[in-house]
From TrEMBL:
The keyword Phosphoprotein does not apply. One of its GO terms (molecular function) is menaquinone-dependent protoporphyrinogen oxidase activity. This is Flavodoxin family protein. It comes from the Bacteria. The chain crosses the membrane at residues 82-100. One of its GO terms (biological process) is heme biosynthetic process. Residues 4-132 form the Flavodoxin-like domain. InterPro entries: Flavodoxin/NO_synth (IPR008254), Flavodoxin_dom (IPR026816), Flavoprotein-like_sf (IPR029039), Protoporphyrinogen_IX_DH (IPR052200). The lineage of its organism: Bacteria, Bacteria division WOR-3.
Length: 132
């Protein structure tokens, strides 16, 4: 593996922090790019990476709406793409794994791993709607 793209959504900063730390560690072995999701994201560059890492907060036991919207707009790929997912949460990611996996599989992206990273509660502190 030579190139990894970490794409994240962060409402209160936890997912951004995890993305940055993960990027720092991975960059010791591979080329890493870290990007925040945006409405005008250039999806055409995804094919340049051997692995895509997605990171997002869990709000009310589901992925953030911003990440769901981002993935619903991701184009289908002809060649299967590997995706590793991390979700930040206070207690549990609930149905996040199933929701993200279902969206990815419809577009020929294959989840090769999923991890929950626990931190402080932020569901009520900041609940972003759509993209930030």
């Amino acid at each position: 593996m030579k190139k990894v793209l970490i794409i994240y959504h962060s409402g209160s900063g936890s997912s951004r922090t995890v993305a940055e730390i993960l990027g720092e560690v991975l960059s010791r072995r591979v080329e890493v790019a870290i990007e925040r999701i945006r409405k005008d994201y250039d999806y055409s560059k995804l094919h340049q990476y051997e692995l895509i890492v997605l990171g997002f907060p869990t709000y009310f036991f589901r992925p953030s709406l911003a990440m769901i919207n981002f993935l619903q707009n991701i184009p289908e790929t002809k060649k299967p793409r590997l995706v590793f997912v991390f979700a930040t949460c206070a207690a549990t990611t609930g149905s996040s794994y199933k929701i993200i996996r279902a969206i990815l599989e419809k577009k020929n992206y294959r989840m090769c791993g999923f991890v929950e990273i626990r931190g402080p509660v932020s569901d009520f502190a900041l609940t972003p709607l759509g993209f930030s």
